[in-house]
Amino acid sequence: MGGLIRSIAEEIKREEIAESKSFAKWLAIGSVSGVVIGLVGTLFHLCSSSAEFFRSQHQWIIFLLPLSGVAIQLFYDAMHYSHDKGTNLVLLAVRDNRNMGPRQAACIFIASVMTHLFGGSSGREGASLQIGAAIGSFAGRRLRFSEDDRRIMTMCCMAAMFAAVFGTPVTAAIFSMEVISVGIFYYSAIVPCVVSALTASYISSLMGIGRLSVSAVLPEAGPVSYLKTALLGALCAMLSVVFCAAMSGALKAFRKIKNHPLRAALGGAIVVVLTLIVGDQTYNGTGGEMIVSSFSERPYIGAFAVKLVFTVITLCSGYKGGEIFPVFFIGSSFGSAIAPLFGFDCSMGAAVGMTALFCGVTNCPVASLLLSVELFGSKGLPFFVLACAVSYMLSGYRGLYSEQKILYSKIRPRYINKRIGDKK
Prior knowledge:
By secondary structure, the chain is mostly helical.
């Protein structure tokens, strides 16, 4: 009996030592990564913000957008990175251990800043995921990590970069673990992702980088308001399908132009013409001001559609940046514009539209729900969980990232392992 007890004690001791070593290792790596990526993310945010500010003071620079597109493509060709997979490469870096490195980080950093400077419609968050993943993948190889640890390192730096740029560390950590293969979480990465995201967000906040400062006026809880919220979530699901289909269709259309610089120049010229038709540059760049204003006043009813067109043309013709911030613009302006039809305050419509559309295009309901809590507080949790649930189920098997996999059916408890880009 005594021998059995000693054997059990020794086994428990071995497991505890292994777990403690792993915990200490990833706690240290997450902390260091958070500091380093926090500084990189702050630099990226400041550069892209400065670029947008410069354009706002010198609006004539929009006419150079086609030339900037040519320059971006020539730069990518010179870096031997002409067949860029964008955020899809991030998913492959985690799931299939594809290599990323400084070349990818430099390309997306410089090209995104150029896109913002000259008036392309794109965001920072998608680009930040690519930069973070590239740094993490490279660091994992240089540190001679195992394949599994390299995957964790990639997610760790993704989370840190997203948190540094957008200021929502909890969302960043969960999103990095959820977006790769919908239906499972990479729980082995939870400590490094959380630690690095919190650290990076703190570092960027010390540098003056803040998150969106908005709030939502909630309706009285009850069956009627819940029903209205569900309906708004369903409309956002439909909008997510339209957006993803537009991105896919436009990408195929632009790819028929085999000359990359010519393709970008054409896309840039279209954006310039559309800007002249609109009469201002509200729909160029990230559009952060419109997102904030959607929470205080009802925007032009077609603002979401205009931003959608600007974004699709910009990103599909070869300019760089992220898709997420434009999604926030489209969702918040759409929800705010139709909020009176439901008897909601425009801020409630903007909040639901923003989170539900994000859920629909990324297929990440948990991260979307946490985003609503970080931005709007926990009091509206029942409304946002309902909107995200409806949007997730009704958005089908489309998404922004063709390499994303949905492992389990949205309507049945069945394993399907379906890639977003698969035709069947």
